[in-house]
Amino acid sequence: MWSFLLALTVTSALGEVVNIPVNNDTHETFGFEVDYTNDQFLLDGNPFRYVSGSFHYFRAPKRYWRDRLRKMRAAGLNAVSTYVEWSLHEPVENEWHWSGDKDLGEFLNIAQEEGLLVLLRPGPYICAERDFGGLPYWLLTRVPDIILRTNDPRYMHYVERYLDKVFEVVDPYLRGNGGPIIMVQVENEYGSYACDTVYMDRLRNIMNEKIGTKALLYTTDGSSPGMLRCGSISGAYATVDFGANTNVAKNFETMRMYQPRGPLVNSEFYPGWLTHWQEPFQRVDTNAVTRTLDVMLSMGASVNMYMFYGGTNFGYTSGANGDNNAYSPQITSYDYDAPLTEAGDPTPKYFEIRNVISKYLPLPNLTLPEVSPKGNYGSVYLSPVSNLFSPSGRQSFATIVLQGIEPLTFEAFNLPHWLVLYETNLVNTSSNLNILHAMVRDRALVYLGDNLIGTLNRTNNVYDISIEGPYQNKLKLLVENQGRLNYGSGLRDFKGISDVTFNKIPLTSWTMTGYRLDNVSLPNNLPAIQTESGTLHHGPVIFLGNFTVNGEPLDTYLNTNGWGKGVAFVNGNNLGRYWPVAGPQITLYVPASFLKTGKNQLVLVELEYAPSNRKMKFQVNPIFNNTE
User: Predicted confidence band at 250 (pLDDT cuts at 50, 70, 90)?
Assistant: First the structure.
């Protein structure tokens, strides 16, 4: 479908519509470069500026890529920006994935068919509020003392291999080959991290070898002199990023300190913002967004809006911000208060932005998007079918069991995410004040015998728990990886527990059980087990329910209100983490592509609390704050 498109409609810096051939069977000259004399870009020799939006292909099922991209084009955008996520494409060392929802080439092809140029951001580090900033966790298992984002040869060995694979895929889509990719970013906001010019030179050289003049290399950094000084590099066009409610002229003046000629560029203009658990859902005022966008476009600047469509952190892909002293994991949704919602619906912000763009660029002749219908599939009763700590639960869901004197990290298990159960015996003491201490990354449910007695967590720096005597000797710590840090100096974010003491006496001789739980589907005829309602004192419980979809499946939202903390699966698809008691996110987005006509399955792995009615419901509206 759509193979009949023979030209890419773009708009020059002068507001002229330019039809650019996209097939390589002509003798057209393709290219993208900087005209420093006239402070502008040249697309295939024509003056050009882009108005772009970020959309990360890995945050939406492949089925929705064309829909989201077409809606972006209908808003007046002429380009799309996307990261490439290393961990998505190489989840296990030397195991590469480029098909299905990971088909980067097809995403680029659809973008071109929909009339959008592409700004490619291949990393290797991308931040993006993703686990480990998009780096594959196994880097920490191969070289535990690896120095990330530097010229450490052990790191660069893997980086070069990764970039080789990326450019094998994207080479046909470079502008010089007639494709849509006009710009390729070197690293990602490196000035916010370090000042290693040797590393940046090396990355630029690697990319130059792959790209040559077929696309333009660029860097992106915050609009402070220090960030630009450390993040910009000769041979790559230096750009800045900043949001609404800011002084546009002053920010671009800072850019001019390091990029004195050429077009003005804001590579990340923020119409929304990210949200962590246990904080209000972040919103950015539409008037502030459109006012600042209008100013930038009136100055002739090229702009990329981050995010124009945010999407979802399905599974365990969301990351965290902080450092060794502070830790804030991000919610599952990446709605971002963007112009297009998590489900791809246009918002008032979408239409206001489109109105601003229309002042500077001709709008395409496309039907304006509307809010899509959603499915109200009602309440689902969830029956308890297994306890994670029971012999059958361990047999069914445990990935690996190890013994050790010291507790091992998740990475030592080759376990990329979610849960490890650490078990040992407490030492006998005569103290009246019994204190258990453990440095936990990131959250631990603490059990004595078979009873939950409390929680340790990194977010609030709670690493000690008092144990009232008499106590049982058997200790269990169920540790949850809530997402590796994606930003800042603490990227080497190993998960697990360490420095475990009881009354300052180290605890040793551990049994450790890893639970991976990537995609869970169960036989529908499993018998129910006995379990309590309310707090799950005796360990996490697997719940199973079924619901019916009549007719063609529609997008819907799973309302988790009243439950504790866990992960939900629909027909084996991992919707991601829910934690309604912490908020602000209450619902999980369920794309129609995860559903089927007829009988469907819902599975929960609930860690902490089950309401007495044991129900969740599928509804038509999302809830990002308790009051919505």
Answer: very high
- pLDDT tens readout for residues 368-425: 999 999 999 999 999 999 999 999 999 999 989 999 999 999 999 999 999 999 999 9
8 A C-beta contact, residue 621 and residue 555: no
Is 206 within 8 Å of 187 (Cβ atoms)?
no
Which of 48, 118, 50, 57 lies closest to 266, judged by CA? 50
3-state secondary structure of 265: strand
pLDDT of 19: 43
User: Is 213 a residue whose pLDDT tops 80?
Assistant: yes
Give the 3-state secondary structure of residue 352. Answer: helix
Average pLDDT over residues 485-493: 94
Strand (E) or helix (H) holding 11: strand 7-11
R_g (Cα) of the chain, nearest Å:
26
* pLDDT confidence tier of residue 18, bands split at 50, 70 and 90: very low
CA 308 to CA 71: how far, in whole Å?
A: 10
Q: Label residue 189 by pLDDT band (50, 70, 90).
A: very high
Q: State yes or no: cis peptide before 307, omega within 30 of 0.
A: yes
Residue 349 DSSP class: H
Q: Quote the tokens at residue 328.
A: 């804030």
CB of 207 within 8 A of CB of 188? no
The residues that are catalytic are 189, 268
- Nearest partner of 307 among 265, 276, 344, judged by Cα: 344
Q: Rounded to whole angstroms, how far apart are CA atoms 259 and 41? A: 14
- Kindly tell me the burial class for residue 34, based on how many C-beta atoms sit within 10 Å of its own C-beta (0-12, 13-18, 19 or more): middle
Mean pLDDT value across residues 511-515: 96
Residue 197: Cβ-neighbour burial (10 angstroms; 0-12, 13-18, 19+):
middle
Go through 103-121 and write b for each residue having 16 or more CB atoms within 10 A of its CB, e for each that does not. bbebbbbbbbbbbbbbbbb
d(CA 562, CA 613): 9
Which residues are registered as beta bridge partners of 328? 321
- How far is 365 from 372, CA to CA, in rounded Å? 20
The string of DSSP codes covering 368-390 is PP-PPP----EEEE-EEEEETTS
pLDDT at 428: 73
How many angstroms from the chain centroid is the CA of residue 321?
12
Tell me the pLDDT tens digit for each residue of 521-548.
Answer: 999 989 999 999 999 999 999 999 999 9
Sequence letter at residue 216: L
Residue 606 CA, distance from chain mean position: 23
Q: Cα–Cα distance between 181 and 121 in angstroms, integer? A: 10
- Evaluate the CA torsion angle 217, 223, 225, 227 in order and state its sign: negative
Q: How confident is the model at residue 102 (pLDDT cuts 50, 70, 90)?
A: very high
The amino acid that residue 527 corresponds to is P
72: left (phi over 0), alpha (psi -120 to 50) or beta: alpha
Return the pLDDT at 16.
Answer: 43
Q: Tokens 């229309």, residue?
A: 358
First to last CA, the chain: 40
Number of Cβ within 10 Å of residue 37's Cβ equals 8
pLDDT, tens only, 24-54: 454 578 999 999 999 999 999 999 999 999 9
